[in-house]
Amino acid sequence: MLTESKSSGVLQRVLPHAGFVIVYILWGINISVMKIGGQLWDPLVFNGLRYLSIIPFLWVYTYFYYRRSGLKLQIAGRDLALICTLGAVSAIGMEALLQYALQFSNSANGAVLGRGFMPVITAVIAVILKDIRLTWRVILGIPMAFLSIILIVAGGEHGFHLGAETLRGDVLLLLRSFLGAFYLIGMNRLVNKYPLALLVSLEMTAGALALLPFLLWKADTAYSASISGIGWLCLGYTALFATLIGFSIHNWSLSRLGPFKSSVYGYLLPATAAAAGYWLLREHLSLNQYIGGAGVLAAMYLVQKDRMQLMKDRSSASANPGTVGNVGGSAEAKHQLKGGS
Question: Where is this region: Disordered (predicted)?
Answer without folding.
Answer: 315-341
